[in-house]
Amino acid sequence: MRILVTGSAGHLGEALVRVLGDTTDHEVVGLDLLASPFTQVVGSVADRDFVREAVAGVDAVIHPATLHKPHVGSHGRGDFVDTNVAGTLNLLEEAAAAGVGRFLFTSTTSTFGRALTPAPEDPAAWITEDVAPVPRNIYGVTKTAAENLCELVWRDQRLPCLILRTSRFFPEEDDRDEVRPSFDELNLKVNELLYRRVDIQDAVDAHLLALERAPRIGFGRYIITATTPFSRDDVAELRRDTPAVVRRLYPDFEDIYAARGWTMLPSIDRVYVNAHAREELGWAPAYDFRRALDALAAGADPRSPLTHTIGAKGYHAEPTGVYTTRARQLPS
């Protein structure tokens, strides 16, 4: 299968090109605005003529390329529309016209937006695919619009199209100024495996399964996140006292954390649920909180080897807050 992967100089794009390229079953073509060892064609998805040439002879398109949440402060809304909406439409329509057999769109749990933040007195939000998005910013608005274009092209032109709403997988420091000083970087990421993070290896595996099953499914939306240990019965207590819930489920967590000087988040406001992806895609994410605890107890790194291979890339050509393009090793 000849597969076009957009955003091949980015985190997920590079990971997909690496993993797909290691098989003998696929020919992979990386596309990005930036030249990289994993990019064969350089250009913008907002350029319709460029996209038409890029999809020629392709059997499948995987589309992670996007302007991200960190770009909200550095790019105008029109830039987001050009890349995330018009660029996705270009790919969809040209793929359909070229007879491409399947299309994967990498979306984000950020589409849920304001639905992720319940009132202070309310329980944590239980987030499944049935929750209606209430975008918080131009990133969420444009990713939601692009999702809707995917559904439109599926219905009108029958291009099999699956949408994968990924939770956090970036390795950089957290972008929240009020959170970053309070937690060791890895401490926070392990905490997030409970409710809002996915390891990049698991994200890649979900895309590969979606690629295989897209023609049979036709159209679908899926939350891609580490499997939460929580149930709906936990949401009220999670908002009041998250450590108490974690202590009940993982009696050994406090000793493992104490050995590193780590702490648990006092409260969480949402829980992402991946049950639909596990059931319909046959996905079995490996990197969850239990695995992380076991790795930490053994003195090992809880992240996948692929996480370290990709490293930290950043989002801007010039340093902007915690995001830079300076390549670096991840801290242990």
Walk me through the structure.
The longest helix is centred in the N-terminal third of the chain and has 21 residues. The chain has one domain: NAD(P)-binding Rossmann-like Domain (Rossmann fold). 39% of the residues lie in helices and 13% in strands. The chain is an alpha/beta fold and 332 residues long. Helix 1 packs across helix 6, helix 2 packs parallel to helix 3 and helix 3 packs parallel to helix 4. About 3% of the residues have low confidence. The protein is built from 12 helices and 9 strands. A 7-stranded parallel sheet has the order 3-2-1-4-5-7-8, with helices on both faces. A two-stranded parallel ribbon has the order 6-9. The two termini are 37 Å apart.
What descriptive keywords fit this protein?
12 helices; alpha/beta; globular; Rossmann fold; 39% helix; 332 residues; seven-stranded parallel β-sheet; 13% strand
Question: How are the secondary structure elements laid out?
Answer:
Layout: E1 2-6, H1 11-21, E2 27-32, E3 41-42, H2 48-55, E4 60-63, H3 77-97, E5 102-108, E6 125-127, H4 138-157, E7 161-166, H5 185-192, H6 200-217, E8 219-224, H7 235-240, H8 242-249, H9 253-258, E9 270-272, H10 275-281, H11 289-297, H12 305-310
Parallel strand pairs: 1-2, 1-4, 2-3, 4-5, 5-7, 6-9, 7-8
Helix pairs in contact: 1-6, 2-3, 3-4
Strand order of the largest sheet: 3-2-1-4-5-7-8
Count of distinct structural domains: 1
Q: In the CATH scheme, what's the topology name?
A: Rossmann fold
The arrangement of helices and strands along the chain is EHEEHEHEEHEHHEHHHEHHH
Coarse shape: globular
Find the structural class using helix and strand composition: alpha/beta
Distance between the termini: 37 Å
Number of DSSP strand runs: 9
Average pLDDT number: 92
| Binned strand content | 5-15%
Per DSSP, the total helix count is: 12
CATH homology-level superfamily: NAD(P)-binding Rossmann-like Domain
Query: Main sheet, how many strands, which sense, barrel?
Result: 7 strands, parallel
**Regions with pLDDT < 50 over 5+ consecutive residues?**
319-328
Q: Considering DSSP H and I runs of 4 or more, what fraction of the residues is helical?
A: 25-40%
Q: What integer value in Å does the Rg equal?
A: 19 Å
Query: What would CATH call the architecture?
Result: 3-Layer(aba) Sandwich
CATH class term:
Alpha Beta
